[in-house]
């Protein structure tokens, strides 16, 4: 079932379509055919991600998502990393970290701390 096209503020130049399909590799593969990149925003990714990644691989498109789940990132690399690389495709879970040390650390700094800066290196 196809949704209607609509414009969202801030992405006026994007061409997109809202579509509903079964959450199964075959249905998702058919949906992704012809796409260059799929940006998955449906989690938890450890539960709902495998079918999307498999469909991207079958459809020949790059995969990104917005996960913060370390177990999902490691599973994706282990299970599909080599397969994506062999096809020249990008497998990039965790493109947008939802909670990072940079965001959380200031909450743990005492209000009377003398330092006015906080330097963090995320690897």
Shape: elongated
User: What is the count of DSSP helices, taking H or I runs of 4+ residues?
Assistant: 4
As a percent range, the share of helical residues equals: 25-40%
Quaternary structure type: single chain
What can be said about the biggest beta sheet?
3 strands, parallel
Radius of gyration: 18 Å
Secondary-structure element string: HEHEHEH
What is the typical, i.e. mean, pLDDT? 82
How does the helix and strand content classify structurally? Answer: mainly alpha
Strand order of the largest sheet: 1-2-3
Q: Tell me the strand percentage band.
A: 5-15%
Taking the alpha carbons of the first and last residues, their distance comes to: 42 Å
Low-confidence stretches: none
- Total strands: the figure is 3
Note the main attributes of this structure:
three-stranded parallel β-sheet, 123 residues, mainly alpha, elongated, 3 strands
Describe this protein's structure:
The protein has 123 residues and is mostly helical. The chain is built from 4 helices and 3 strands, in the order αβαβαβα. The chain has a 3-stranded parallel β-sheet with strand order 1-2-3. Helix 2 (45-59) links the parallel strand 1 and strand 2. Helix 1 crosses helix 2 and helix 2 runs parallel beside helix 3. The model has no long low-confidence stretch (mean pLDDT 82).
Give a quick precis of the structure.
Helix content is 36%, strand content 8%.
How is this fold's topology laid out?
Elements: H1 25-32, E1 37-40, H2 45-59, E2 62-65, H3 70-86, E3 91-92, H4 101-104
Parallel strand pairs: 1-2, 2-3
